[in-house]
Amino acid sequence: MADAVLGATVVEDREAAVASRRRLISRIVIYGLLGLISVVYIVPLLVVVLNSFRTNAEIGAMGLISLPQSFRLDAWPQAWSDFCIGGQCNGVARYFWNSVAMVVPATIISTALGAINGYILSKWKFPGSEIVFGCMLLGVFMPGQIALLPWAFLLGKLGLANSVYGLVLVHCIQGLSFTTLFFRNYYVSIPDDLLKAARIDGAGFWRIFWKIMIPLSPPIIIVTVIWQFTGIWNEYLFGVVLNSGSNQPITSALVALSMSGTTVRTYDVMSAAVLIGALPPLLVYFFGGKYFVRGLTQGAIK
Amino acid sequence: MASLTIRNLRKSFGVVEVLKGVDLEANTGEFIALVGPSGCGKSTLLAMIAGLETVTSGEIYIGDRLVNSVQPKDRDIAMVFQSYALYPTMSVKENMAFGMESRGVPKAEQEKTIARVAALLQIEPFLKRKPGQLSGGQRQRVAMGRALVRDPALFLFDEPLSNLDAKLRVDMRTEIKKLHQRIGKTTIYVTHDQVEAMTLASRIAVMHQGEVQQFADPDTVYNRPANTFVAGFMGSPSMNFIDAEITSTGGGAPAVNFPLSGGGVASLPLHNGVADRAQSKKVILGIRPEHLSRQSASNSGKQGFATMSALVEVVEPTGAETMAVLKFGDREVVGRFSPDEAPKTGENMPLAVDMTRACLFDPATTRLI
Ligand SMILES: Nc1ncnc2c1ncn2[C@@H]1O[C@H](COP(=O)(O)OP(=O)(O)OP(=O)(O)O)[C@@H](O)[C@H]1O
Ligand SMILES: [Mg+2]
Questions:
Q1: What are φ and ψ of residue A210, in 5° steps?
Q2: CB B361 within 8 A of CB B336
Q3: What is the mean pLDDT of residues B147-153?
C-alpha cells in the first residue's frame, strides 16, 4: 500500500521533471527567436546612430558597420544648418520646420473632424448615414497615390501648389477616413441612454459633444493623434510630388540624399540628418506608445 | 386635472406596428404603472411621452398642452433610466447640476436645490464621487436625484429597479413609495414586475402586444382582470385556467362543471348572475392559487365556497407559504396554502374553493364575463 503510493509520487515527479524541461526548451526557443528579430530591427537604427557620432574619415576607413573609434557631435549641427541637399546648403532645419508646420495643423484638424464625424455617424444617424459611413470607409482602403494627380490639379486651382498649406489640406482629407472610423467605432459603444438623458436635461448637439462625448474620448484621441502624427510625418510621396525645393517636408527632402551623388558622401552628416527626420515619431512612440496600445484595447466605459 | 392624456397613440418602426392605439391618462399626483411582458412596447410608450421617439399618429398632452412635436427638454418632464444613464465623467454633484446648467439656473439656486435633494435621498456623502465609484443602489439614488432637482410636471421611470438585487429592490420600492407620498408628483412608472406595479401604483395599465389590455386600480386589475392575459400576468403563481361548462343543477342554481380524473365531474356552484352574462355554455374558469384552501369546519359550509378534492402531485414549501400542484382532471392547478394546512405529496386533498373570487372568461374573446 505504502509502496504503491510512493511509486505513484516517483512517477509524478518524473513526469513533472520532463514537463518542466520541455517548458524550459520552448522558452529558450521563443526568447531566442524574439531576440533575433529584435536584433534585425534594431541594428540598422544602431548603425545610423553610431555613424552620426563617428568621423567621415573613420567611416571611410573602417566601413559603415563597425564600432566607433571616436565620439564627435559635429555632424549634428552640420546636418541641422549647413548640410547641402539639392544644391542648397542650409541643412535640414528648414525642411524640419516645414514638416512641423504641416503635421501639427493637419493632425489637429483631421482628428477634430474625425471626432465630429464619428459623433454624427454613431449618435445622430440620419437617413443614408450608413451609406455615408460606407463611402468614408472606402477611403481607408484606397492607396494615397491614386489621389496624387487629382490633388496636383486641385491644389493648382486653389493656388496652393507647392505650399505647406496645400499639404495640410491633403493630409486632413486623406486622413479623414481613418479618424472618422476610429471615433465612430469608439462612440458606438457609448450607451444611447446617456444622450437621451442629456437631451431631457436640455443639452443640444454641441453641449452633448463637449460635455459628454469629449470627456469620454481621451483614449481614442490619443490613438488618433499618434496615428495621424506619425502617418503624416513619415509620408513623403505627396511631399515629393506636390512640393519642390525649400517647400518640401523633411522626409521628402531626405529622398534627395540618394540623388546628390556627385560629391563625396558624408555618411556622418547624412546619418544625423536622417535621425533628425526620424526623431519626432520616435519621441511620440517613446512617450505615447503605451497610451496607444491602451487606447486601442479599451472601451469608452469601463 | 389630468397631467397626462394620451389619445389613440400609434407607433410604427417601418412596417412593424409597436403601439396600436394606446389611450391613457394620469391625474395630477397620480402614480401610474405600465406593466407588460418584454417587448410589449412599454419603453417605446415612455420614450414617446418623453419626446425621444416620434409619434406616428395620435396625441400626447402634458397638462393641457399638445406636445407631439415639442422637444424633450421643453416638455417639463424628468426621466430615470433602467441603465441610470449617469454621466460617467462627472461627479454626482455635476450630474445633478448638468440639467440646471443647461437651463441657465443661477449657481446659488443650483447649490440650494442639490443640497435639498441630496438630503432627501441621503446621497450627501458621495456628492464628489464619480458614478463608477458607487454601488448599484447608490447609483439608482443618484439617478433619481438627477430627476428630482427639476420640478417637472411629470416623472418618467423606466424599470428603475430592475438592475438591483432582490433585497435592495424591495427596499428601494418602499423608498420610491415614500418619496412619491412626500412630493406627490405625477409619475409614470414602467416595470415588468407586477408586484412593483401592485404596491406602488394608484392605477395600472397592463400592456400586451402594443395594446393596453386594462387600465384600472390595482384591486380591480387583480380581482376583476379584464381578460385571461391580464389575469395570467398579474399574480404569482399565475391564476389557474380551467375549461369548464355552465350547467343548471337541480333547483336551477347554476354551476360550472369540469371533468375530474377517474371519470368524475366537479360541479362548483356559481353566484349572483354571472351565468346569465355568459354568451355560451363553454367558459374558462379562473381560480387564483390563494383561493384554494383545505376543507375545514370553518369554510366547508360557508356561503360561496365549493368543495371538491384533488390529487396532490408536487409540494413546494417556501417558508411563509406552501405551493402545491394539484390534478384537476388532466389539468395541473397550483394552490397556495399556509404551512399548517399544507398537503402531502400523493394525498387526495379535500379542497374548499372560494367561488366568490373566481372569474369566468369567454373562451372565444378571452374577456371577463
Ligand atoms: N428603434 C427600433 N426599431 C425597430 N423596432 C424597435 C425599435 N425600438 C423598439 N422596437 C421594437 O418595439 C417593440 C417594443 O419595444 P420596447 O422597448 O418598447 O419593449 P418593452 O415593453 O420596453 O420591453 P422590455 O420589458 O424588454 O424593456 C419590440 O418588439 C422592439 O423590438
Ligand atoms: Mg423596456
A1: -75, -40
A2: no
A3: 89
List residues of A whose CB lies inside 8 A of any B CB: 191, 193-194, 196-203, 207, 211-212, 215-216, 301-302
List, run by run, the mean pLDDT of 10-residue segments along chain A (302 residues).
54 82 92 94 88 84 80 86 77 91 96 97 93 90 88 92 93 94 94 94 95 93 93 92 88 76 71 90 86 75 58
Asked if B85 lies within 8 A of A203 by C-beta distance, the reply is: no
Residue nearest to atom 31 of ligand 1 (CA): B39
CATH number of B240-361: 2.40.50.140
Q: State the Cα angle at B63 between B58 and B67, rounded to 5°.
A: 40
* Placement of cell 541643412 in the chain: A91
Q: So what's the pLDDT on residue A266?
A: 79
CATH number, domain B4-233, options 3.30.70.3040, 1.25.40.10, 3.30.360.10, 3.40.50.300? 3.40.50.300
* Among B44, B192, B194, residue to substitute to test ligand 1 (most atoms within 8 Å of Cβ): B44
Residues of A in contact with B88 (CB under 8 A): 194, 216, 301
Instruction: Please report the sign of the dihedral spanned by the C-alpha atoms of residue B316, residue B321, residue B323, residue B329.
Output: positive
Of A191, A207, A302, the CB nearest to B85: A191
Closest B-chain CA to A191? B85
Q: Between chains, do B85 and A202 touch, taking CB under 8 Å as contact? A: no
C-alpha distance from A261 to closest chain B C-alpha (Å)? 58
Is A242 among the domain residues? Answer: yes
Rounded CA-CA distance B256/B251 in Å is: 15
Q: Domain range for residue A173?
A: 82-297
- The β-bridge relationship of strands B292-294 and B331-337 is unpaired
Q: Quote the pLDDT of residue A63.
A: 79
Chain A residues lying within 8 Å of B87, measured CB to CB? 194, 197-198, 211-212
Angle CA A277–A54–A81, to nearest 5: 40
- Around ion ligand 2, residues with a beta carbon closer than 5 Å are B 43
Q: How far is A214 from chain B (nearest CA, A)?
A: 10
Burial class (CB in 10 A: 0-12, 13-18, 19+), B69: exposed
Protein residue closest via CA to atom 20 of ligand 1:
B39
Average pLDDT, chain B: 90
Strands B77-80 and B154-158: parallel
| pLDDT reading at B265 higher than 90 | no
Show me where the domains of chain B are located: 4-233, 240-361
H helix or E strand, kind and range, residue A7: helix A2-51
Asked if the Cβ–Cβ distance from A200 to B47 is below 8 Å, we say no
| SS3 at position B80 | strand
Q: How far is the CA of B19 from the centre of ligand 1 (A)?
A: 10
ipTM, two decimals: 0.84
